[in-house]
Amino acid sequence: MSDLVTNILAASQLKKGGLCGNDVKIAFFNRIGNLDEYLFKCKECERVYKSKSGNSNLINHAASHADWIDKIVNAKSIGGPLDHYIHRRVSPKAINLFRWIELCVMNDEPFEFVENEYVRKNSRNESISRKTLVKYMELVHRKVELKLKAVLNAVNPKRFGLVFDSWTCTSDHYTAIFITWTDKMGSVQMLNLSCGVQQESEDDELAFDAEAMGDYFVDELQNVGLNLFEHIDFVTGDNCAVNKRFATLISNRILRENGSAKSWCVPLVGCASHRLNLARMAFYGNPGNEIVIQKIDMLMTKLRTFKNSAKLRKVTNYCPENNNATRWTSTSAALEKFKKIEPHLPTARFGEDVLQFIPTALESNQISSIIASDQSFASASRALQRGGNNHLEMVHVRALFDKLIMQHPESAEKLSPTAEIIHSPAFETAVCKVQSLDERSLNVNEKKAVRRFLIEDDDTVENSDEDEPNEDSVTDWAQDAIDDTEARKRQRMFLSKYRSMKHVSPTSNVCERIFSRAKLIMRPHRKHMSPFHLEMLIFLRCNKVLWDETTVENCTSESGEPDDDIA
């Protein structure tokens, strides 16, 4: 219904200005791909649409940009009648450079990769030097930064959410920031704003408090023309004290500048994976489970010694596995590994130092019970790791947590909607109600928490059917809860007073994936890479949708310096 109204309004504006759909194509879109694919890329935000017959989807997208009618008129006044039928071709040089850059960025290859004699021998690309690769990679980086700024400033209304996390590896401290919003088509967009690398030094002491974090966020948002205290609706991060104080400081600043009548709170949406891990650790740490888990960990430690591991290899190919405090699934993995090794332990002829830690038959049954009970936590954890179009919304996470509380009542301390660990329980509850199309049940505090999302002016938006979960995914414990939630949502369809909240991210797992990628890039032989180049590689990889062969072509035409290629 809302799409139909939008199309009618856009078509009437075109007709009033004496314009047509073909004028929209010329002004806003470039034709890409083969001619028979009918693909069009927006010149302003790089989104790609397929339009084989008719221009309604192209017109609808163009109407989402500010001053779109004026831009069409200006383009029509300077363009020729055959401009739309000219298919721009990218030069062979740009295609070759793009392939090398894409290979190094997306495959985590070092810059010297392009000069390796065996790579050149077995590659169809023309050889280039390391200097040329880095030169154009930096030019592409600057182009993508400008495109990111243009994309974000074209969003209307200019309201976003931030997903962030920090990680320290040796002497390097990483802070990743993603910016997210829901576009006019109802799709969730998420782009990388930065992944800053701060190195410790003897002269300067790094501050990791909320105030320093706020300064960093203000600077990064200013680079793309945004204001932390004006354009941000919420932040998503771990449920730690620093992050809670960071969100509180933002809200207090807004209150001082705007007064109580016009101010709003910027809530911290606590990472659901973090809360789930805390509840899982509490399950492992209860008196009935902790003793036997510690015994298994000590057994695995003994089995990893040189002599005992040699004895174990004679009877089985399974290797012992210890708990790891930084890996959320390590305890479950260690218990499962023990059950695989257990049948082979009597034949390995271990000494008394190992035999004293082998669980009894009663303890072995208890371990099996722990593994069986842990399956619900494991299923929920895998569901929270979903990304892209198959990501979970807040309402789905609430359904998972409620089901976990029914099976494990002790987990309510961390997973209940009113748990002390939550920074803004009214906001999270309100988002769940709006996403489940049950906003009529919002109380006063919940309405106040999400009033920032009220649709401005007289615009009304009808909630479309939410994306169905991926049918190809394995139906499991977590999927049942998600399906039940979707079924209830389809029973209540009405016009919502709020903007879409699909982009309110319940986890910061996207940042964790970036940190894993940074660790893969910074291999031992690349430790001397500059922080700027590391951030550049991560930025280009995360924002791959914003650059292609055409971007490199623009860089080659603007670069006036000759390339230092090696034959």
Task: Name the features.
single chain, alpha+beta, 3-stranded antiparallel β-sheet, 23 helices
Shape: globular
Q: Give the total of beta strands.
A: 10
Order of strands across the biggest sheet?
Answer: 6-5-4-7-8
Terminal residue distance: 60 Å
Residue share in β-strands: 5-15%
Whole-number radius of gyration? 28 Å
The biggest beta sheet is recorded as: 5 strands, mixed
| Total DSSP helices | 23
Mean pLDDT across every amino acid position = 83
Number of domains: 4
Instruction: State the helicity in percent bands.
Output: 40-55%
Structural class: alpha+beta
- The low-pLDDT segments are 82-87, 457-474
In summary, what is this structure?
Helix content is 51%, strand content 10%. It has 567 residues and is α+β, with helices and mostly antiparallel strands.
Walk me through this protein's architecture.
This protein has 23 helices and ten strands. With 567 residues, it is an alpha+beta fold. Helix 5 (92-106) packs across helix 23 (549-558), helix 7 (130-154) packs across helix 23 (549-558) and helix 11 (287-303) packs across helix 13 (330-341). The longest helix has 25 residues, at 130-154.
Write the SSE topology.
Blueprint: H1 2-16, H2 21-28, E1 29-32, E2 39-42, E3 48-50, H3 56-62, H4 68-78, H5 92-106, H6 117-122, H7 130-154, E4 160-169, E5 172-182, E6 188-199, H8 210-223, E7 232-237, H9 241-262, E8 268-270, H10 272-284, H11 287-303, H12 306-315, H13 330-341, H14 352-355, H15 361-384, H16 394-407, H17 412-415, H18 425-435, H19 444-449, E9 461-462, H20 477-490, E10 495-496, H21 509-521, H22 531-542, H23 549-558
Parallel strand pairs: 4-7, 7-8
Antiparallel strand pairs: 1-2, 2-3, 4-5, 5-6, 9-10
Helix pairs in contact: 1-3, 2-3, 2-4, 5-23, 7-22, 7-23, 8-9, 10-15, 11-13, 13-15, 15-16, 16-18, 16-20
